[in-house]
Structure formats: structure tokens, C-alpha cells
Amino acid sequence: MKVRIKFSKEGPVKFIGHLDVMRYFQKAIRRADIDIAYSTGFSPHQIMSFASPLSVGHESSGEYFDIELNSITDTEDIKNRLNAVMTEGIKILKVAVLDEGEGNAMASVAAADYLVRFSDKILLPDDWKEKLSAYYEQEHIPVMKQTKKSEKEIDLKEGIYKLQIRDDGIFMQLDAGSGSNVKPGFVLEHFFSTIDVQLPEFPFRVRRLETYRRTKKGKLMPLIS
Amino acid sequence: MRKLALSDEILMQVEKPARYIGNEVNAVMKDKNKIKVRFAMCFPDVYEIGMSHLGIQIIYDMLNRFDDVWCERVYSPWTDLDAVMRRENIKLFALESQDAIQNFDFLGITLQYEMCYTNILQVLDLSGIPFLSKDRTEADPIVIGGGPCTYNPEPICDFFDLFYIGEGETQYRTLIDLYEKYKDEQKSRAWFLENAAKIPGIYVPSLYEVSYHEDGTIKERKALAPNIPDVIVKEMVTDVSDTYYPMKPVVPFIKVTQDRVVLEIQRGCIRGCRFCQAGQLYRPVRERDVDVLKEYAVKMLENTGHEEISLSSLSSSDYSKLPELIDFLIEECNKRKINISLPSLRIDAFSLDVMNKVQDVKKSSLTFAPEAGSQRLRNVINKGLTEEVILNGAKLAFEGGWTRVKLYFMLGLPFETEEDIKGIGDLSNKIAAVFYETVPKEKRNGRVQIVASTSFFIPKPFTPFQWAPQCRKEEFLDKAYLTRKSITEQLNQKSIKYNWHEADVSVLEGIMARGDRKINQVILKAYEMGCVYDAWSEYYKNDVWMQAFEACEVDPDFYTVRERHDDEIFPWDFLDCGVTKEFLLREWKKAQQETVTPNCRMQCQGCGASRFGTGVCFEEKEGLS
Ligand code: SF4
């Protein structure tokens, strides 16, 4: 049976890359003595699927992965047992049993919410808020996107579902589907290039707030809802 | 949440920022206000190497069991961060608290190989601690060295306040008690050092003076303080089943060299190979109780979540309860889906059976370490592995489906001849021939793959070969060419691949290994000229090193190619590792006569180590009553 786990990643652990987070959870699951299923073969590995990789340096309160279990106590027990073996900065928020036939975490991802704050090294023009609103109000935002092989023009607007300027930063809901994924930094870099603002290195502090799947009716729902 | 010593901007621009953030599973955090002594334990190389070292984990665990001590870890910042720290004047910090090393009470540096010596200076430099012990004050940490290289600490003795000679489990408590007295009673640093020198196993280099003959060899060593020992005896754990062991080792976030549970099954080695330093330093052999090991294995797997476990020791096949331990591990690990990483074992029916159970035969290879190409030379070095044993082992393995063989040899061994070197090609060829004889054509899946590797022999202190001259770089290279030629001349040469090591580094390692106090200035000079991370071939700058020797007017040849008299006083002779110089000299003579010495279990050789009153020396010998 499949179980989906939601966790947060905050503070210094944001510098741990995606592959290492996977390794971290493989070990954590053993420490927590969770009855996970293994693949067959000479070096069996845990059956585990992560929703979408988080860039190094980003924090999140909406990370997900699925695991396949041989047996289960209950979801609260799994949550507690995992939380007992976590390191500072990584916390298990929710555990849910998946319905039979539900797609795995990675295939399900459709969108994600982000909150972006600026590094204090950015020199912002006074009217940046108006300019950002105007940028977002455009019907189309044509940009050149570098793919592995070539460069092609895309409409960035299609991938930006929401953009709001909030007191604590810029909130964005972005396409996070495989292939069409839009990164928050990419949007803001493009915006600042249109208003000729030079960015320092590492200008943004990004936090992923939630990750969504799309229901059959086309509605966005958190991966555990 | 902890505040990091490095800003987000810096961490985002360096490779693998997780090297510097600490906070790993099982890392120990303590309340700064409730402890008296802060200890920074350093492995002077990059995180992934340092985190793979069992010795540090043992000391880390032990010190943190003391309520009044907080031991933290520090490693060499990689070259990218090193540059940033210098540019922005950031002081080196410990991983756990992220506090500057400069403000610690102790900086302990483990010395596992000679090529890390410039990294010691990097760590001191970035910490803001004076390079030289004599320039440090009460405000600086006490810099203490430990590990195998302390068995000749003289080339780096100026940089250390103390060395701890021997196994760390025994005297740290005493040393820390003394330190607390020094702080509580506001004594001077000199007072502390003088009293530390009276603790067994502690060597305070500044309290001894060395004078030299005109030819550069040592005339005399004099103690400069009253009541400190002339000879320092190594510290040793008598009962290895009843001592500290890290049941909760730190689990790194990033992949490190040894990303697994390590079970140390025994200390020491019964074999007495004459080139091997570890085989002498850790005498006598002490086995860890098998039931204790089983318990450790389970606990450590549970506490770390590692997916692999390995056994660690010299010559693991000699551990008397090995079959019992491995059976247990196979059962336990199958249940938990854990891999077992086997140590190199003597190839025979037992080990092949075990290998068959725990590895994929198609992907794994057999390893033999004949070390020398001919039986004659194997007798010289006392490596008791015969051609017959190798060929029989290979035959058995080929029948079992193995097709890959790794062979390890050394070049430049004492009394080596061209014939001995040619023996490397011959032996490789014979193994290939065994394959073609054993495995019928229709069952073969391509060729047998034999990889022969050679390293260059470096004479080390406290071995019978400590008297031997080391080869020059040109000689080393000639020997490597000869080896390659001997292989390409073989009938089965297409099945044999040959690798050899670089020669430059071997020469420098040889200088460091048998160096004296005059080498300190050369290391400092080389560091100032830009040498660091010498163990990494991409950073090793041989020409700069040679310039440093020249600038200091120190002749490298004095330490390497020179013949040494039987009665020469060596820089390390004031240390006592258990085996006597008489025993080593006896072995040196026997090497010249090509005479083999039986191992400790066959017949005690009276090496001197029995005075520790433990281990193999007191086992009942087979066949004797
Ligand atoms: S005293 Fe004898 S048995 Fe003990 S270590 Fe030395 S040679 Fe081996």
C-alpha cells in the first residue's frame, strides 16, 4: 500500500541537494523502522518517489514523497516515528494513505506556490511594485527559454497562475508540471531584466509553500488534501 | 535555529555547501554554558574524506560522553571556500556550534597520512592560530596531534603543542583534568605543557632538544624539563571489547567515502610483513569479542539507518570468529536489506562462499596482494602468500564464475632485482592461463580481466625496512616501465591491464615519513609558496616543493636514498611502539637472508609487544601445550 508524506525543509538544511534529501529519507525510514517495500534484485532499494526536486538554497513547507509499505500501523504513528528521527529543519507535516490507482507523487505534480523575498543587496527602484503589477497584467509575456538542444520562445504568462505582492514577499503560483515547470527565480529575473535592474548574485530567498496536483475536474489540490 | 558561520551568498557559491553546515544526524549538540572544555577535532582533509574515518568518530563519541566536554568537528575547507575565507577574513569554525576554532580549548588534529601536512597549516592559518607552538599564548587553543603519523612526529613537531602517542581511548580524561586545573588555577601555558609531558603517551616536542652530528644524523636528544620521560611509550587499549565505541556515529548528509557502518573487529596484525608500518605499530593483535560485535552491528544499523556495513581491521581473515560473525551479519542484513561490504579476505573456499552470498559475482573481483612478483622477494618482505595459493584460489574462483582479478604489487622493495619485477608479468600471465585452462570455451563470457597495480615502496619508521634506502624517482619509473614490458611480453597480455602510481609524491612521502625536525621549516615554506591538498594529485606541486627544499637548504636525498647504519639514532627512536629496535634489526637482517618469520600465532618472535600483557601474545598457541 502507498503512503504519501508531506514535509518541510527549513534553515541550514536548505543547502542539502535533492539527491541527498532522498538518501536522508532512505536512512530515516530505516531508523524509524518503517516496514517499507523493497525492489527485488541483487541490491534491493526502497520503493520511494519524490514529488518535485527543490533547488539547493530554497526552503519549503510543502515537500512530498510517496513510499510503498508492506504493512502499516496508522498514519499518525508513521508521522511520529519519522519525526522522532528527524534532524533540525526537516519536519514531517502530514502522512496519508493513497487511494488505489492514484498516480505517484512525481507524475501528479501540476503546480506549486512560492514566496520570494529579496536579498538586501538588490537596489529596487521606488516604483517596482507598480512595474511588477503591470508586468503581470500583460496578456502575454514572451520569453526565450533555453532547452537542452535549442532556444525557443514561450509565453511565460501561461505558467504563472497567480502573482501577488504581499508584505512578506512576492507570492506566486506557478506551473510545476514536468516539462512545463516554471521556476520563481526565472520569472523575477525576467521581470527585472525588462526594467533594467541589475541583480546581484543570489538575489532571491525562495520558499515553496505548497505543491499541487490537478483533479479530474481540473482543480488544483494540495498533494495531500 | 542554529546560525551558520557562512552567509547564504557564500554557501550558494561554493561546491557542496552541506560540507559546512553541520547538523547531521547524531551530531552532538551541547549547551555551551554547561561545559568547561571545548574540543575541536580536525581531520585535515576535505569533509568527505574526514567523515569516513572511524578513529575520529571513536574519539568524538568518547569526549562527548564526558559531561564537561563538548567535542565538535572541523575539516579542511575545500579550495573554493578557502579562497573566500581569506578574501573576506572569515575564521575557520567548528561544524556543530559554528563557533570560531580560535576560541576553543583544544584543536585535535588526526594525522593519517604524510601528504596532509600542509593542510595542518591551512587549518591553523584559517583559524588564526599561530603556526608555531612557541608563538602561542594562553589565549590560543592547545594544538594536539594523534594518529599513525605521530609515530614520527618530528617533521611537524614545531606546529604542535602536544602529540598523543597511541590509541586515544586511554589518556584523554587525564589530559582534560589537567587542562581544567590549568584554567581554574590560572597557571601558565608552560606549566600545562610541562605537566602534560608527564602523562603517559603524551609527547611535548618543545621540551626536548635534538643535536646532530656533522653528517646530519642525530647525536643526542635531551629533555629540557625535570621528571619528563626520555622515551614515550605508546598508549594502548588492553581490552578492546570493553572500551568506547561510537554506537551512534554521525550520519553525513552528502555521500562520503565510507558511507556505511564500520565495525572494527580487531586491532593489530599477526603477520609481520616487513614493509608494513601498521602491522608493527598496533601490536599485539587484540580481537574484539564476537558477541559484542554482533550487538554493535545491530545498534549502529538501527541508529544510523545506513544501508551498508563493512568490517575493518588489518588482515581480517585472521579474526578467529570470522565465520560466525559473517554468518550472523548475512542473516541480519538479509532481513534488513543491508549490503555487506567485505574486507579483502584470503581467497579460499570459505571466502568465495561468503563473497558468493553477499556480492554479485559478475560484478565483483578477486583481490590478491602478493606485493612482490617472485617468491624470493616475497620471502624478503615476509609476505606469506605463495604462487601455489594464489593459483589455487584463482582456479576455485574461476570455477565459481569470477572473471575479474585485481593484483597489488610494490616496486622498489629492498633487494629487488629485475627478475623479481619480471615476476609480476609472469604471475599475471599464469593467473590468466589458469582461467583458460579451467573455464571451457563455451562457458566463457569474453576474456578474463586481470588488473595489476603497483605502488612505490616507501620505507616507514618502526618497520624492519626503516634502514632501507628508498628509490629515486628515476629508478621508480624505470621499474614501472620494466613491469609494463614484462606484462606486454606475456602470452595472455591482452587480458592484463597495468596501472601504476605517480613517483613524485612517493618521494615526498618518503621524506616526510623518515624526516627529522629540519623538515618543519620546509613544510612551512612550501605552504607559504602555495602548497596545500598535496594528497590530491590535481593540487600537488612537486616543483614548488623542490624549491622549498632548496630555499631551506635541506637535501631531500638525506631522507630517502641514503644508506643507514645499523646503529644510527633515528628521529623517532624516542618513541616506543611496543616492538623493540633489536627485533626490527633482527628482521632487517633476516630480510637480507631471505628468511621468512612465522606469524604470532605460529610462533612468538619476542618482538617486545607482549609487555602490554594482552592480546595474541597470551593466546594458547596451536599445537603447543
Ligand atoms: S610478543 Fe610475540 S606474539 Fe606478541 S606480538 Fe610480538 S611476536 Fe607477536
For the structure shown, list the relevant keywords:
heterodimer; A: 225 residues; alpha+beta; Alpha-Beta Plaits; nine-stranded mixed β-sheet; two-stranded antiparallel sheet; 34% strand; B: 625 residues; alpha/beta; Rossmann fold; six-stranded mixed β-sheet; globular; binds iron/sulfur cluster
Quick take:
The complex is a heterodimer of chains A (225) and B (625). Chain A is of the alpha+beta class and 225 residues long. Chain A is built from five helices and eleven strands; from the N terminus they run βαββαβαβαββββαββ.
What does this 3D model show about the protein?
The complex is a heterodimer of chains A (225) and B (625). With 225 residues, chain A is of the alpha+beta class. Chain A folds into 2 domains: 2-102, Alpha-Beta Plaits, CATH 3.30.70.580; 110-222, Alpha-Beta Plaits (2-Layer Sandwich), CATH 3.30.70. Helix content of chain A is 22%, strand content 34%. Chain A has 5 helices and 11 strands. In chain A, β6 and β7 form a beta hairpin. The radius of gyration of chain A is 19 Å and the shape is elongated. Chain B folds into 3 domains: 8-233, Rossmann fold (3-Layer(aba) Sandwich); 365-518 and 557-594; 523-553, no CATH class. Chain B has helices at 8-13, 47-50, 54-65, 79-88, 117-127, 172-184, 189-196, 278-281, 290-304, 322-336, 349-358, 375-381, 387-399, 418-438, 473-488, 503-513, 519-528, 542-551, 581-592, and strands at 37-43, 69-75, 106-110, 142-146, 162-164, 202-203, 208-212, 218-223, 232-233, 261-264, 266-267, 286-287, 308-312, 339-341, 366-371, 404-411, 449-456, 496-500, 575-576. Chain B has 19 helices and 19 strands. By secondary structure, chain B is of the alpha/beta class. In chain B, α5 crosses α17 (519-528), α9 runs parallel beside α10 and α14 (418-438) runs parallel beside α15. In chain B, the strands form 6 sheets. Chain B has a 6-stranded mixed beta sheet with strand order 2-1-3-4-5-6. A 4-stranded parallel beta sheet of chain B has the order 15-16-17-18, covered by helices on one side. Chain B has a 3-stranded parallel beta sheet with strand order 10-13-14, covered by helices on one side. The radius of gyration of chain B is 25 Å and the shape is globular. The interface between A and B is medium-sized, with 32 and 30 residues. Residues 283-284, 600, 604-607, 609-610, 616-617 of chain B line the site of iron/sulfur cluster.
